[in-house]
Automatic annotation (TrEMBL):
The keyword Protein biosynthesis does not apply. Belongs to the binding-protein-dependent transport system permease family. It is a multi-pass membrane protein. The chain crosses the membrane at residues 12-30, 114-137, 149-172, 192-212, 249-271, 293-317. Pfam families: BPD_transp_1, BPD_transp_1_N. Gene3D superfamilies: MetI-like. This is ABC transporter permease. Keywords: Cell membrane, Membrane, Transmembrane, Transmembrane helix, Transport. One of its GO terms (cellular component) is plasma membrane. The keyword Transmembrane helix applies. The lineage of its organism: Bacteria, Bacillati, Actinomycetota, Actinomycetes, Propionibacteriales. It is found in: Cell membrane. It comes from the Bacteria.
């Protein structure tokens, strides 16, 4: 197990380095010039060259990549003399428009995205697995038809449309929920949850649709398996049979949950934009709009790191949930 984890971690490091290089290369291939955006209008050629040299965007892609990797390990320095700016390791770069290092910006925005991801993940699991299990156990009934329709609608409708409907109906028309703003959990747990109910509803509605379909399909397959049919024939109660069947359902659910949670932690751009939440998704979007290479690379790499770690945890949980995987 230790060898497997070490091998996965080494692979993860190379994957992150590759993602950083591709992101930097794609950014430099774009038509926007970060130095021109920072210089403003009008921007004489001489001034633009000085700004570009100060931001270190006048160098090649390979040089930029080398400096980025160096910054992660030993920190990085921009400019010279009194205008010199130092970014301590691990340095994801320095955002000149925000006058702050990207690591601090990520740390500042992370609680918003963590709060959004945690509540949406729990809610979508409860709704998705609950409705999916009831749909499989009462196949063909009213609950099954409702769950199937709910899942199909959730998979078909775009996230921004659900968000706008929630804001319009519950925020403006009924005035029942706040439609913007964020309150820290340490400041007031009640207000923290109250301001996040709307985003949680939107994201859990979209994500729960997938869990309903996966849980229903997998549970029906498990209930028709030979060993569970034999248990029923020997007189086992439906509760005992369902309990054994649920273990087989957990494997695909855990794999799906790892991807969804890490994607949420990476930043749910649409939900944050609709509800005016300043999380990682909003930070990434602002970096793209402002041609801020440091923010784009930093948030992309951080999101990739979360996805890789989430998948590693899911892979380690699989053998604990299903002994057949451990034997394989």
């Amino acid at each position: 197990m230790i060898t497997y984890i070490a091998r996965r971690m080494v692979t993860a490091v190379f994957m992150l380095l590759a993602i950083a290089f591709v992101t930097i290369a794609l950014f430099f291939g774009a038509s926007k010039d970060p130095a021109r955006a920072m210089c403003g209008k009008p921007c004489p050629a001489e001034t633009k060259e000085k700004v570009s040299a100060y931001m270190q965007t006048d160098q090649s892609v390979v040089w930029q990549y080398g400096q980025f990797v160096k910054g992660l390990v030993a920190g990085r320095t921009y400019g010279e003399g009194r205008q010199q700016v130092h970014c301590d390791a691990p340095c994801f770069g320095y955002s000149f428009p925000n006058r702050s290092d990207v690591t601090s910006l990520i740390t500042e925005r992370l609680p918003v995205t963590l709060s959004l991801a945690a509540g949406a993940a729990v809610l979508c699991l409860v709704v998705g697995i609950g409705l999916g299990a009831l749909s499989a156990i009462r196949r063909g009934g009213l609950v099954d038809r409702f769950s199937t329709g709910f899942a199909m609608f959730g998979l078909s409708v775009p996230t921004f449309l659900v968000g706008l409907l929630v804001v319009q109906v519950f925020g403006f028309m009924l005035n029942a929920l706040p439609y913007s703003g964020f309150v820290s959990f340490s400041e007031s747990p009640a207000d923290w949850a109250w301001h996040l109910i709307g985003p949680w509803m939107v994201l859990s509605f979209i994500l729960a649709a997938g869990y309903i379909r996966v849980t229903r399909t997998q549970l029906l397959n498990e209930l028709s398996a030979e060993h569970l049919v034999a248990m029923t024939a020997r007189g086992a109660s439906p509760r005992q049979v369902n309990r054994h069947a649920v273990r087989g359902v957990m494997v695909p659910v855990v794999a799906m949950f790892a991807l969804d949670v890490t994607a949420l932690l990476g930043g749910s751009v649409i939900a944050e934009k609709v509800f005016s939440l300043h999380g990682l998704g909003d930070l990434l979007l602002s970096g793209v709009n402002e041609s801020d290479l440091s923010i784009v690379v930093g948030v992309t790499l951080f999101s990739a790191f979360l996805i890789i770690v989430g998948n590693l945890i899911a892979d380690l949980l699989m053998p604990l949930l299903d002994p057949r995987i451990r034997r394989a």
